[in-house]
Design a protein that fits this description.
Helix content: 40-55%
Number of domains: 2
Oligomer: single chain
Mean pLDDT: 91
Number of strands: 5
Structural class: alpha/beta
Order of helices and strands: HHHEEEHEHEHHHH
CATH topology of the largest domain: Nucleotidyltransferase, domain 5
CATH architecture of the largest domain: 2-Layer Sandwich
Distance between the termini: 10 Å
CATH superfamily of the largest domain: Ribonuclease H-like superfamily/Ribonuclease H
């Protein structure tokens, strides 16, 4: 594999730091520029924009590949939910699937909220992970229609409070959306959500379920693995 950082003026460590700050945290491009300047790194916000567009998909695909090969993945229960996102003044729908631990499995952007869109999400999920034991959704009838087509209608679980895990998974994206002042293009939205989901998985240590000592160890391990991406 050729070095993806060749011909770049700045070191890979600087590029990884800039991409992590912008995608992981609810910061604008100019805020990332200011944070880097405090560390003695003089780059413009347009350079940060170019870096996340260029290297974000590479980092996300590497993280996804490692997690897919992990033996710890579980198909016990999936949680599916959709939210609307304004893109260039038009409404689009962001569909997200998470597992029972809150790890983002897939995120897609569609123009409509119908059976075809639900099928697209479910087919991508089952192609990559196989069929789960249970699929938790809201009362949107597109889910039941799509699951019936796939022969999985007996695996659907619907309840008023049962899908809170999927609804809560939208919160980090919503915070980031506000800092970015919305999206102008559906392709950019799809690209960003895919990258954002993988970085969320990589750094999410479920800190409310573990001791402080274990959390610090997991955080250090995640940062060390991040610094080795595309090395």
């Amino acid at each position: 594999m050729k070095n993806p950082f060749r011909y770049f003026k700045y070191s890979p460590d600087v590029i990884r730091l800039a991409v992590m700050l912008y995608v992981r945290f609810p910061l604008s491009l100019r805020q990332v520029e200011d944070l880097l300047h405090e560390r003695g790194i003089d780059v413009s916000h347009e350079t940060v924009r170019y870096w996340w567009n260029r290297f974000g998909p590479l980092f996300a695909s590497t993280i996804k590949g490692k997690r897919l090969r992990s033996p710890n993945h579980s198909n016990w229960r999936w949680h599916l939910d959709e939210v609307f996102v304004k893109v260039g003044g038009e409404r689009r729908y962001l569909w997200r699937a998470v597992d029972h631990e809150g790890e983002v499995l897939e995120a897609i952007v569609t123009q409509k909220r119908d059976k075809k869109a639900a099928l697209k999400l479910l087919k991508q999920l089952m192609k990559r992970f196989g069929k789960p034991k249970m699929i938790v959704t809201d009362r949107l009838r597109s889910y039941s229609a799509a699951l019936k087509t796939l022969g999985c209608e007996d695996r659907q679980e619907v309840g008023r409070w049962r899908n809170n895990r999927a609804e809560n998974s939208h919160q980090p994206f919503r915070r980031k959306e506000r800092s970015m002042q919305g999206f102008k293009d559906p392709t950019t939205l799809q690209k960003f959500t895919s990258i954002h989901g993988q970085l969320y998985n990589h750094f999410n240590a479920q800190r409310h379920l573990i001791t402080r000592q274990n959390f610090k160890a997991f955080r250090a391990e995640a940062l060390d693995a991040w610094r080795q991406l595309a090395a």
